[in-house]
Design brief:
Oligomer: single chain
Number of domains: 1
Radius of gyration: 22 Å
Length: 78
């Protein structure tokens, strides 16, 4: 699972780099109104990535908190 997550992180990072270079080239040829929308869309994608990272961090923290706890055990009562 960790390997798959690393691949996803690399892929997303690569996609952001490609997008960055594409936008740098494209912004010279598009009207200002379109540029505003492209910037807003990029911001929304970054916010989505932030939300995913926040959720993963929360999962890790939750696992760390419960890691030291003992699991309930059945006890026979006579």
């Amino acid at each position: 699972m960790a390997k798959k997550q690393e691949e996803v992180v690399k892929l997303v990072s690569s996609l952001f780099e490609v997008e960055k270079h594409f936008l740098e080239l494209l912004l010279d040829f598009v009207p200002e109104e379109a540029r505003k929308h492209l910037r807003a869309a990029r911001k929304e994608k970054l916010l989505a990535v932030r939300a995913i990272l926040d959720a993963k961090i929360k999962d890790i923290e939750t696992k760390e908190k419960t890691k030291g706890r003992r699991k309930p055990q059945k006890v026979k009562v006579e």
